Amino acid sequence: MLNHAARYFPILKVLLEHLPPDGTVVEVGSGPVGMGEFWSQPFVGCDLSFPHRPQIPLQPVICSAEALPFPDQSFDALIASDVMEHISPTRRSQVVSEIFRVTRRVAIIGYPCGQSAWVLDQYLHEHYLSRKKAPPLWLEEHMLNPFPDEQLLLDAPPGWEKKVIPNESLRFHFWMMRAEMQRVWWYSFRLVLFVAPGLVRWLLRYANHEPCYRQIFVFTRG
User: Fold this and answer.
1) According to the model, what pLDDT value does residue 197 have?
2) What is the rounded distance in angstroms from the CA atom of residue 42 to the CA atom of residue 34?
C-alpha cells in the first residue's frame, strides 16, 4: 500500500500540474486498479489482461503496450509506472514510440532504473526466500531482465521537453518493501493513508533523493 503511494503521489502531482480541465488520461500497464487507487476521475487503463475485475474509475482496454489501439494524440496525458522493467529490452523502444504517438501534452514514465535498483530487488527476492515466503509475481518478473536505465529515455523526442524526478531512495525502498511483507505494517500503512493522506504525501517527499530506486521521466510537449 505505501509503496503504491510512494510511486504514484509524485506522478499525480505532475499530472495535476499539466492536465487541462476535462483532460483525458490513459495508464499503460495499469492492472485492474492503477492510479485509480488515488485518482477519482475516469481514465483508460491498458494491460495484457486483468486477473481481477477492473475497479472504477478505470475503464479497461486489453492490449499490448507495443500496439496501443488508439489514434495518434488520443490522450492529453499518459502514465506508465513500473512497466518498462517488465518488458524485454528488445521491445522497450517500440513501447516508448507508442507512448509518444498517442499522447498530446504530457507523458509520465517511471521505472526502477539501472543496475543498483536491480541488485536491490535481487536482495529483496532473496529476503523472501530466506523467510520461506513466495516472492510476488512482479518481483519474479524483475529478475528476468536487466532494468532499463537513463539511456532508454536519454533524449526528448522533437517538440518535447524532459524533466527527471528521483523517486524513492534505495535505502527507503528496501526498508518499505521488507516492512510490507509483515501484515501488521501493511495494515498500519493502509490506515495512515486513509486517515491522513496529505501527511503521508508530505513525508514521502523526503524519501525522494539520490541514489534512488526509481526515476520518473516527465515529458511535456513544448
Assistant:
1) 86
2) 12
pLDDT value for 172 = 96
Cell of 164: 527527471
Residue 146's domain comprises 2-221
CA angle centred on 32, ends 27 and 35, rounded to 5°: 45
H helices of 53-113, where? Answer: 92-102
Strands (E), 63-143: 75-81, 103-112
> Which residue, 96, 98, 104, 198, is CA-closest to 148?
96
Exposed / middle / buried, residue 195 (Cβ in 10 Å: 0-12, 13-18, 19+):
exposed
| Cell of residue 212, nine digits | 534512488
Three cell numbers, residue 30: 495499469
Task: Write down the pTM of the prediction.
Answer: 0.95
CATH code of the domain containing 95: 3.40.50.150
Q: How many domains does the chain have?
A: 1
Contact 92, 148 (CB under 8 A): yes
For residue 147, the SS3 value is: coil
